[in-house]
Fold this sequence. Notes:
By secondary structure, the chain is an alpha/beta fold. The protein is built from twelve helices and ten strands. An eight-stranded parallel beta barrel has the order 1-4-5-6-7-8-9-10, surrounded by eight helices. It binds ligand PBG. Residues 131, 133, 135, 143, 179, 215, 218, 230, 286-287 line the site of ligand PBG.
Amino acid sequence: MSADSSRDHSRSVETPVVRPRRLRTTPAVRRLVAETRLHPAELILPLFVREGVSAPVPISAMPGVVQHTRDTLRKAAVEAAEAGVGGLMLFGIPAVQDATGSEGTNPDGILQQAIRDVVAEVGDQVVIMSDLCLDEYTDHGHCGVLAADGSVDNDATLERYAEMAVVQADAGVHMVGPSGMMDGQIAVVRTALDAAGHQDVAVLAYTAKYASAFFGPFREAVGSSLKGDRKSYQQDPANAREALRELELDLAEGADLVMVKPAMAYLDILRQVADLSPVPVAAYQVSGEYSMVEAAAANGWIDRERAIMETLTSIRRAGANQVLTYWAVEAAELLRRR
Ligand code: PBG
């Protein structure tokens, strides 16, 4: 602005020469200049499979999402593959939980059976991934085993993770997702996989995972018994720097992909990680992010489909290469219709 125009109040509006609106005038021009494009192949669908149920069990806090039977899981996997979704992240819900999460390392445990089922069904078309964590399997609901004083024992938990990794890889999974935020987990999982001859099984590291209220609905989804919180192992929402430290460590320990989680409240973290990471960066649009939009849409407060696509676009724009989302199939179908 010139010094003149600020003084001359009789001429308060100048005719603009630069008009950014030109590139917003028509759908065709907007499409031409869009910087961020979503594609079904980069979407990853989380799926829950529950032992011992004969019909899918709805998750009330996540309308539209269910705990699958082995049979309906297979069908959901086929549906996702047909929609062009790039990956499936499997979570198992065992019939029995105990202190050490024994079912997590049972070769015939529900998750291992589900991996075998889904790999046989769609393993050629879609990347099959499994959650590598104990919270679904422990009766206290923590992501690890407990020390005598009730704290989560980092190094004893690592031993369990090593065993889990091998059992999941033996079942045929393509990629494991250690999500427990134990120190050293990526190195331990990588070493265990290699020692068992699973050099080609990749590790999707949950690198920056925050102790978030947005995981709330997931607790119902996996029948978690957690009392208390995960603040002694998941990151403090107030902190950004430690995410970069976690990134450095996970890379040094052999992570093939890294992840930021949750997504929407942590887009700044996602951007910082994306700017530094030499490996692909995933983001997890978690249960609470899903449920917020679904609840607002159910009340008629928000345009559901637009909100879904806007959140996914924002996550991609912030730097995610892959997005885990409960809307993966629906979003893939919406993208195809565009
Ligand atoms: C831990 C795990 C959690 C989620 C994915 N893996 C829960 C937690 O850390 O408390 C949350 C996913 C979501 O909220 O959608 N196994």
